[in-house]
Amino acid sequence: MIRILIVDDHPALRAGLTAVLRAEPGLVPLATAASVEDLWPALNRTKPDVIVLDYHLPADDGLVVCRRVKRAVPAPAVLLYSAYADASLTIPALLAGVDGLVSKSAPAGELYDAIRRVARGERVLPPISRELLDAAAARLQPEELPILGMMLEDTPPAEMAETLGLQPAEVTHRVDRMIKRLKVEIPAPRTVG
Amino acid sequence: MTSRWLTLLLMTRLLAAGVAVLLLVVHRVTAHDSTLVVVTIAFTAVTLAALAWVPRLQRSPVVWLVDGVGVLALVAASEDWRSPFYILMLTALILPSTALPFRRALAWGVAFTLGYLGVAVYTELDANTLESTIRLETITTHLMVPLVVVLALAYATDVLERLRGERVRSEQLAVESERQRIAWELHDSAKQRVHAAHLVLSALHGQLAGPQAELVGHALGELRAAGADMDTSVAELRMPLEGRSVERLLDERATELAPASEAEISVRGSVGELPAHVAAHAYRIGAEALTNAVRHGGAAHIDVMLSRNGSVATIEVCDDGRGLPAIRRPGSNGLRSMRARAETIGAALSIGPGAGERGTRVKLVVSTDFAERSTKP
């Protein structure tokens, strides 16, 4: 049985996801959260195995939330569920510690499969192409490239800090900065003053 | 705009001509008053008729000059600078003051005043006049009035012009923010519902077989297509430029494409400032042309050249590759969407072989005048 927490700001999607996951044997949607504020109490109360996390949330984006969720002990697996699940999100998602990436337009079968695999500890990310890597490298500072390389190799944070001769906190800070540089911008509606 | 000033000219000139004729008839001014009356009526009728029927003349400096010389000649013919034609003379300042830019209008006013001073000297201005305080005051007033008229009219025109510019800008801003809002709602609400419906149906799809599965499969296909349509609409509605220049974005696009290309890409020049939706479409056309050159051109050099001449902006993308295929690639949506975009902003788009029949040359020419007109309701 896989215990699931759903985080999405849109009611239609929360309801749809809950219904669909409840219908699938072995998957149990425990709770839903509409925002980051709702997420923490729900997380502490339910201790889920997997969080199905929307990329775009009102206050923060899914990557920032994922970084924070991953600091919890024990950390749940995070499946980023996004309308923008295109290739350019793969590298920032990987840096943020996302376990899986599924498009909102994927059929339910694909979602079930991804949930089961991340719950087993697998990674469900699209392959990182040469082109994608070059594009990401072009947006990063030269001193950040070793970090990117080690993250792609799945190097543990402590080892990274040692290799680079940095404090673990400094590594964390740098990774946060890299995610900020790489993430896909979604323009919010402009208000006219 | 011009018709408003023409109306002012019609009214004041008719009135001034009436005053002049009345003065000539009531007070004997010269020995040839009756001739002057005929000339006044003819001059007024001819100038007003010509200006009203041929609008082009209203903006012609030659016409203003002829008109100005004509009224000054009437003043001279009355043999006194305190002439019955003085007000008629002032009406000749209306068109140049309102058509010329502010500083040039003032220059025109000064030149005209000097012309009037010349006439005054020619008629009766002498040492006698300059010694009498009252007459000195009168000539000074007569010299100041044309300047005041020009100043007031030129200032009013300038303010009206600026107000109009502000209105166009604020209309554009309103249109833009409305587009942003629609894009946001389309994405944030409608599309999320489509995703939810697709998800729920797809869960059902796995449990069905035969014709029922086929039916649900069909519905799923429709939902996916609806989602894709929404993505396209959202991308169209959003201004991707967000204040950044077309050349900067094309340069960024070139940097993105560079690793995937053998070609050397250069982006030069600038199209200057364009209305937001024109800039957005122009950028998309340029980016599409650049992408095509990289993907299909097999080129060694790709040059993107931007330029601006007055209200006309040009973007040219040239490569020295294989050139356009004789037969269209199946499903080449790119070219079609480029043409559709060009049409939207009233731009001329030409796609053909480059210099010396080598490679491909895509040229987009857009006039901002058209763009401004087309945004008005």
- Give Rg of chain A in angstroms: 17 Å
CATH topology of the largest domain in chain A: Rossmann fold
Taking all residues together, what is the mean pLDDT of chain B?
85
Total count of domains of chain A: 2
Overall radius of gyration of chain B: 34 Å
Helix content of chain A: 40-55%
> Quick one: how many beta strands of chain A?
5
Strand order of the largest sheet of chain A: 2-1-3-4-5
In DSSP terms (H or I, runs of 4 or more residues), the helix count of chain A works out at: 9
Portion in beta strands of chain A: 5-15%
Which class best fits the helix and strand makeup of chain B? alpha+beta
First and last CA, distance of chain A: 51 Å
Largest sheet of chain A: 5 strands, parallel
Strand content of chain B: 5-15%
**From N to C, what is the helix and strand string of chain B?**
HHHHHHHHHHEHEEHEEH
What's the overall geometry of chain B? Answer: elongated
Q: Briefly, what CATH class of the largest domain in chain A?
A: Alpha Beta
Order of helices and strands of chain A: EHEHEHEHEHHHHH
How would a crystallographer describe the biggest sheet of chain B? 5 strands, mixed
| Whole-number total of structural domains of chain B | 3
Tell me what the structure shows:
The longest helix of chain A has 15 residues, at 168-182. In chain A, strand 1 (2-7), helix 1 (11-23) and strand 2 form a beta-alpha-beta unit. Chain A is globular, with a radius of gyration of 17 Å. Chain A folds into 2 domains: 2-119, Response regulator (Rossmann fold, 3-Layer(aba) Sandwich); 130-182. In chain A, helix 8 (157-164) packs across helix 9 (168-182). Chain A has 9 helices and 5 strands. Chain A has 193 residues and is α/β, with parallel strands linked by helices. Mean pLDDT of chain A is 86; it is low at 187-193. Residues 371-377 of chain B have low confidence and may be disordered. In chain B, helix 2 packs antiparallel against helix 3 (61-77) and helix 10 (246-257) runs parallel beside helix 11. Chain B has a 5-stranded mixed β-sheet with strand order 1-2-3-5-4. Chain B folds into 3 domains: 2-167, no CATH class; 169-237; 246-375, Heat Shock Protein 90. Chain B is of the alpha+beta class and 377 residues long. Chain B has 13 helices and 5 strands. In chain B, a hairpin with a 6-residue loop joins strand 4 and strand 5. The interface between A and B is medium-sized, with 27 and 33 residues.
